[in-house]
Amino acid sequence: MSNPVGGNIRSTGNEPSAPSRGPAVLGADVGGTYARLGWTRVEPGQPIRIHGLRKYACADYPDLAAILRDYSRWLQHEQGPVIRHAVVAIAGVLDGDALLNSNLAWPVSLSATRRDAALEHLQLINDFVAVAQALPHADASARHLLHGETGSTPYSPAVVLGPGTGLGVALRLADGVMPSEAGHAALSAGTPAEQEVLRLLSRGNAHIDNEEILSGPGLVTLSNCLCELRGQPRRWQTPAQVIQSAQSGNDTLAAEAVSMFCAWLGSLAGDLALTFGARSVFLTGGIAGHLARELESGSFQQRFLAKGVLAPALQKVPVWRIDHGELGVLGALASYAGDALPPASGDSRKGALMP
Fold first, then answer.
1. Are strands 121-126 and 85-90 parallel, antiparallel or unpaired?
2. Are 218 and 288 found together in one domain?
3. Nearest in space to 294 (alpha carbons), one of 130, 163, 153
4. At 171, which CATH number?
């Protein structure tokens, strides 16, 4: 039985069917906590319209195929189209037939998922490649300026990053999107307080990566490190608890943790912008949405610019927060729409995590 979280979150067009001659394609955005699914009919030259958007809790299902099957059954029950083609935006790197990922609720096999979901063609793409591909398709009202000027918004080169269950990063170029595993690159401290946090994390660990702090679980880790440094007991188990405590106005330690998180994220965003010569930066993800006010308060921007003699190079680079819960699904569908016709049945070339 279907067990979606929130059911139809948002849908466009006639539901669940949409008259068209183009093929019906399923797009999915699968993270460590939730999977969001929707579908469209691909029409060359026409805007992508998401139909039947639904959200599922990944932990409620034994594997990815079970979620895809559940969605297909719901769509059939609602007299929607039969889905034979699917693009899944998912965090990780495809190694042969297996997806390498540390944040998913279950392992993913490309061939087994395609077979068990009764699909003719299945493509897996990096989740932040999908987000980067979706940017030109998103409504301008979803963009909120955090830093820089409000003139034109260059989409290349553009850094896209977002803290969620992990830390996603991608680079949008003029001729495509480059996936990145910058979330697993080494975390760098820029202040004495960050050095103290890094010292605690380094006990018994040879490598501390960026998402150890710059993610939802990382915000909890950071907060608990500050508790230890201040001689206080740990008191948070979820990022929501930390954020609620900070925003209550009565918890200075939680507020310090959130401020440090935003500053650390700004520092990494500036590093990536300099590394790739980015002309714009886009910040996405649920954590960024929950911390919208804090990201606009100053510490993010200050550390984004704190790059010594190269600070002027970042002064005019716009940094946008994207408030759009469907970017991953939109990007997955955009990936299919931009492709040539699908390969012959059984051809797995489209399974690679490529832009």
1. parallel
2. yes
3. 163
4. 3.40.367.20
